[in-house]
Structures are given as C-alpha cells and as structure tokens.
Sequence to fold (347 residues):
Amino acid sequence: MKKPLVILFVVVIAIGAFFGRDFWSKSKTGPIEKLQTITQKPFDKYTYEALVKTDFPASEITVGNVISDDPTFVSRMFYFSVGGPSTSSGQAKRVSGLLNIPKKEGNLPVIVLLRGFVEPSKYTTGVGTQHDGEVFAKNGYITLAPDFLGYGESDKALENSFEDRFLTYTTTMTLLNSLTKLNPSLLSSGYKVSLDPSKVGIWGHSNGGQIALSVLEISGKPYPAVLWAPVSKPFPYSILYYTDEFDDNGKALRLALSGFEENYDSEKYSLTNYFGRIKAPMQINQGLADIEVPYWWSDDLAAKLSDLGISVEYFKYPGEDHNFDHGSWSTAISRSVQFFNDKLNSQ
Fold:
C-alpha cells in the first residue's frame, strides 16, 4: 500500500480548474476581479467550524449483491447517497461499500470501517477493510465500509482534488447519520438481524484514521474508535510529508497549496486544532517500523488526547510495518475486537 493522501493532491488539472481560473488569472486583471475571487471562497463550507454546524441528512441504505457467503456471516454490497450542500453541484452522489451481516438473530452493534489510501486503478470493494471486517462480523458486529467517490461502484470523484478530500468527511457523516435506514433493507432482504443505533463504533487505518479523527471532531459524538497507524499531523504538513513519491518532488503540490493558502486559512482545515471536540474513547495501534506513518506521530497523538482527558489505549508493535504484515495483525485485530466488546457490548 503506497503512502496515503498522495494521489489526492497530485491532480494538476484541478489546480488549473480551480486556482488557475479563479485566482491566478484574475489576480492579473485588476482589484475588482481579485475581490470577487476572495469573496467567493467555495471551500469555506468545509472548514471544521462550518462542518460542525452542517446538517447531514440521513440517506436510504440499500442492500445489493452477495459478494461472499461464510458459515457465520454474509458479505454484500450496499449503497447510499451523499449530496445537497455536501457537494458544490448540489447533486446527490451514490456511494457504494461492503456490508457484513452476521448470521444470527437480534439487535447487533455496528462498526463503520474507514480504509487507507489505495490507487483507484488497483481498488475493488473491500480492499483495506475486508479482512478486518470479516473478523468483526464473526464476533457479532454488523460492519459497513464505504468505498468513497471514485471507487468501487460509487459515482465518479469530483474534478477538484481538494473538495474530493473534504467529501470523505461528509460521506462518513452521512453514513453515520443513516445507519438506522439499514434496518428496513435488512428486513426486506429476509434477515432476522437489526442494527442497534446506540452501539456504533469506528475503525480506521492510515488515512482512514485521519477521517475517523475528523468525524469525531465534527460530530462530537462518543463513538468508540480504533485507529491503526492514523495520519494525525496538521494540514498541510500531513500531505507535504508524502511528496517524495512525486516525479516532480512535490512542485505541483506546493503550487496548489500556495494557491489554496492565498484564499483560505489552512489552520481551519487542520484536524490538530480540534482535538478538544473529541468525546470518544480510543485505541491506537502503531507499528514501530512504519515508514508511511512514523510511530512518533502516534506517540504525539496519544499524548495530546490523554492530556485532554480522552481515554486512550496505545499499543506499539516492534518491527511492524504500516499494514501489520510482519506478524502482528492477529494481535492487533484481537485487541480491536476486545476494545469494541468492552465499549459496545458491555453497555
């Protein structure tokens, strides 16, 4: 898995479409045009302060084709919509994802799974969350892992890479607000299981950890969260760190960010300024040989959250990489299951 967040900011076409048209060209034509550019600010609605005040209407969740059938659970596609004020066009966008349904009866807890970055050309539904979701399902959890726009069977990603990034937050917020809409679909599909909206957890890996932290800040809700090697540094350092894989060593990205910061205060888009809004207990798992998310990032995150009075379990894994491929995956997933059992099933 390549470094997360890299692809989201490489889209030079988006730079021309947004900054090139609105900022760079108008800044040469006179004070009136430049004033118009400054006052339009289409991304103001994506600051953390604005998102806190945004209503994310619930969407119907529909159940699709069976992907796999295990003796203890079934995996199926699911679909919901995100739109309205969440996109610049105002049009609803369809988002697909992978749903795991335990083969049992009753009202069950649910975990929303948020993956790290995957190249779109290499992505299929479930990549980055499938194995973890299967373990949770075997332990009695309904799981939903959204693909996000531009992935799986979702609608196309937006042309502007900045807005496409912000929409991962609004997509996840919409899904969380829509969870109770899954129950009618489960019933109509013949299942004798339902989702308990009072028992909701979040699992996130890498960039999915960053999305999880952002959603906990935006919602202010106490969703118990497990993070594996989360991206947790301030914007824009959190993306500049990943420019070593660029052919141009990040020149285009720095140009895009320069244009962004001419129009916007980047501090308002930095999750590190809003840790105080988090109300959720948390578990962090971090490999000490991880070069995608250095362990000292998670050291710093755990310390800051603890200083804010947030309950944090922090586990480090010597010699372990970003994807927990060096022998620690089973330990990390067992600890994750135990955390959710303690926080959700003990309620």
